[in-house]
Design goal:
Elements: E1 25-28, H1 34-45, H2 53-58, E2 69-73, E3 76-87, E4 94-102, H3 111-125, E5 130-134, H4 137-141, E6 146-147, E7 153-154, E8 164-168, E9 179-180, E10 182-183
Parallel strand pairs: 4-5, 7-9
Antiparallel strand pairs: 1-2, 2-3, 3-4, 3-10, 5-8, 6-8
Length: about 190
Amino acid sequence: MIEFFHKGPINGPVTTKAGPPNGPAISQEGPADGPAIETLLDIAFGPERHARPSYALRDGLAATTELCFVSRLEDVLVGTIRFWPLAIPGTGSALLLGPTAVHPDHGGLGIGSGLILHSLGAARTQGHDAVVAIGDGQYLSRFGFHPAHKFALEFPTPIERGRFLVLELVPGVVDHNGGLVAKAAKAGAEF
């Protein structure tokens, strides 16, 4: 079983299945997945999703491709997760999580949780030290995310305080640093 502690390692291997034993398989996103992902993101968030605050931190940057995964059920893409480079005070290699989406016809099967667990395990293994997310604090807290204001971190645009979250992949990396999270220097690779 995979467990995330608020400040600790993953116990056990990272699964490549999401949800039930015969559930969707998780694989790395590839160039051919782009159109299906864009359609899924429009379904999940609407076409106005590009106006969300997190998009300002991604604009002009390529995703961190080795941490972008998809979930398929019978060869149909039903879930996606992406990460982007980010500058967080006190960190050497920080990430912005999102978007994460699961097709509404497949909600409640653990697909989103599987994608998050899988990708956070990969991020930790690859040496990243912190992840910022904007989302449901109650949901993301089960993966070890905490309100960013507890670390005196600030978001560059107005955002609901309880939706701005941070996860330390390296314990103590954001403790007492505070400051503004910012768009990273160009990094990543295009799909």
